[in-house]
Structure formats: C-alpha cells, structure tokens
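Researcher: Here's a chain I'd like modeled. Treat it as a single chain, no partners, no ligands.
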Amino acid sequence: MTPATALRVAHEPDAGIDLDAAERAAGQLLRALGISTDSESLSGTPGRMARAYAELFTPRAFDLTTFPNDEGYDELVLARSIPVRSVCEHHLLPFVGVAHVGYLPGQRILGLSKLARIVEHFACRPQVQERLTKQVADWLSEHLEPQGVGVVIEAEHTCMTLRGVQATGSHTVTSTLLGTLRSDARSRQEFFSLTGVHRA
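Model: Modeled as a single isolated chain. Structure tokens:
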C-alpha cells in the first residue's frame, strides 16, 4: 500500500503582527469614537481588541494528509456544517456560519478533518464570502486533483444584521462547483441535496 503523503500548510506571513502598535491604534480608535479607556473596566480593552483580531487573522498550520484511493471510491465525500468564522473586509465585523465541502475522489482521498482545516485557513483573514467559497474549492482542486469539488457556505454577516439595514436573521449562501459537480446535472443535484441547499 502506498503511504500517506502530507503537505505542510501554513499561513502566508505578511509584514508580521505588531501587537503593541495594534493596541495603541485600538486605543486611538476608541478615543476617536468618544469612548474613554480611563476606567478600570476599559483600560485593558485596546490590548484585548488587538489580541482578538490577531487571533482572528492567524490560522493554525496543519498537514494536508492524503491517502491513496486504493478501492477506487468514486462517490461523493461530503463534510457538512463545518463551522466558519471570518471578518468582513469592508467593515471588519464578523460573519459566522457553516460550510459544506465535498469532492469526488480521483487518485487520492483526503483526511476528513483537513476539510475543516482548509476552510479555517482561508477564513482567518479579512474576507468576502464569495472569495472564501472559491478559494476553498480552487485550493482543493489544485492540491487533491479530484474529479469534482463543491463548496457551499451559509453565513450571517453582522455588518448586515447589526448595522445599516439591520436585517436580523438573514443569511447569505454562496457556492462554487468545479469539475464533474459542475458539468454533470445529476452529480450537482446530489451534492446540493446532501448539503440541504436547494438549487435548480
């Protein structure tokens, strides 16, 4: 039997995180909005803000472990309701929901927990849901080389529910289909049926 292979996946480093500078900036933002940080309960808030955003923007490294598809399995593999939490890049407010990620195996199959890791990898940065959905699908297609990939994300955006239109309870649904899941109507319908998302 061919052994498992793994690809180390780590967050692409940017200019680096400067928590001290972030804390100073958070304090300036709060004061500019008329919120004093002089009280005991608010004095530590700028630091907590800085650390919270640093955590939101830093995905955990992981090994993308794949295994040979020795049995020639060619049916849909689907992980439903993977938790998603990200930050809208337009307002830096959170959006949260679930992702349904599936693929039709080719020569290799993927360790199931890695589907959640890949979602987290792309969600831990300022995002828009449309891009996040496509990034997960494209990345799986490139690194796993399956027959098809499907990704659906359902999320509530607090930039829409807590401010502006204040559309409480609204959810946004995005999808990306590649390969057989895009070209074959029956496979596409099976994918959407198993995710619980109704599409024509």
